[in-house]
Amino acid sequence: MIMKNSSLVFVFLFFFFFFFFFSPLVFADLQVGFYNSSCPQAESIVQSVIQRGFNSDASITAALLRMYFHDCFVRGCDASILIDSPKKKSEKFAPPNLTVRGFDIIEEAKNALEAQCPATVSCADIIALSTRDAVALSGGPNYAVPTGRRDGLVSNLNDVNLPGPSLPVDQAFQSFSSKGLTLEDMVTLLGAHTVGVAHCAFFKDRLSSDATMDPRLRASLVKTCGSKSRPLVKDRTAFLDQNTSFVVDNEYYRQILLKNGVLKIDQEIALDGSTSAVVAGFASDGVGFLGRFGDALVKLGSVDVLVGSDGEIRKKCSSFNGPF
């Protein structure tokens, strides 16, 4: 009996290790290494394009993180944000997306992939891979990206309904929860504010009198943006992380604990009882945050994806293969 049970244990362990170490990791019908056979160079091609872009402009990391979030939060991660159709008003022309950038680098990667592997790699996967590569170049985690997404066939300005930066925690969480994301996921994904900027218009209401903002930060932001007595300069921006503005790290959480959150939602998660413990945990554990950040980005990237025969593989990321 002991030998029989031992044999069963051996067989179980054999299959466990075989599937764990040799089978592709699968996430909601996506899998790591999806293009290993159809386009083996796919990920290295994207990485090369992002490396060149990052070398000339380190702020591309923030731009790609924002694009990734804005794409996945509307119709799922289907590259619908890339469609360029001003007459029929695609997602790109919704007010929250007017300051999204990085479209050119996604198209550059797509052109390189089409030259190597025509009609194979989706624009949705290019966004996901590009975001990972940019995050890694900025000091963040180099996490495994499951691929196999297909590109969407719909892009409508009226579908864009993103959680705003002035929402209280409970209302912001309703948007995240509707995508299958937890409260911890929300706090983790807001850690993307470790890089990037916000336009003055998004936090102007906090510049007159807001007890939750450090007075020294407010004085600095008033110099940048203006105030009631000095007209707001709409095109000016401020770093969301006032310390390590181009590095993906946990400094964002340290700063909001010091009341240095620029956006209202940033400061709110440090003060709200439902999220403050997560913020404090990330502020004291940089390695833990980076690991959790990679996991949360992968989870976001699996929201409502198109796979199999759904959607299409676009030849050009800014337009559908057929008529709009």
Total beta strands: 5
Structural class, by secondary structure, is: mainly alpha
Backbone CA Rg: 21 Å
Q: Largest sheet, described in full? A: 3 strands, antiparallel
Q: Into which percentage range does the β-strand content fall?
A: under 5%
Helix content: 40-55%
Q: How would you state the average pLDDT, rounded?
A: 90
Number of contiguous helices? 12
CATH topology of the largest domain: Peroxidase, domain 2
Domain module count = 2
* N/C terminus separation: 67 Å
Spatial order of strands in the largest sheet: 1-2-3
CATH homologous superfamily descriptor of the largest domain: Peroxidase, domain 2
Run of helices and strands: HEEHHHHEHHEHEHHHH
- Give the overall silhouette: globular
Q: So, CATH architecture of the largest domain?
A: Orthogonal Bundle
CATH class of the largest domain: Mainly Alpha
Low-confidence stretches: 1-26
GO molecular function, one term: heme binding
Binding site for Ca(2+) 1: 71, 74, 76, 78, 80, 91
Disulfide bonds: 39-117, 72-77, 123-317, 200-225
EC number: 1.11.1.7
Explain how this protein is built:
Strand 1 (26-27) and strand 2 form a beta hairpin. This protein has two domains: 30-159, Peroxidase, domain 1 (Orthogonal Bundle); 169-300, Peroxidase, domain 2 (Orthogonal Bundle). The protein has 324 residues and is mostly helical. The chain is 45% helix and 4% strand. It is globular, with a radius of gyration of 21 Å. The strands form two sheets. The chain has a three-stranded antiparallel β-sheet. Strands 4-5 form a two-stranded antiparallel ribbon. The protein has twelve helices and five strands. The chain has helices spanning 2-22, 42-56, 60-75, 103-116, 123-137, 169-177, 183-189, 215-225, 251-257, 264-271, 276-284, 286-300; strands at residues 26-27, 30-32, 146-147, 197-199, 237-239. Heme b binds at residue 193. It catalyses: 2 a phenolic donor + H2O2 = 2 a phenolic radical donor + 2 H2O. GO terms for molecular function: heme binding; lactoperoxidase activity; metal ion binding.
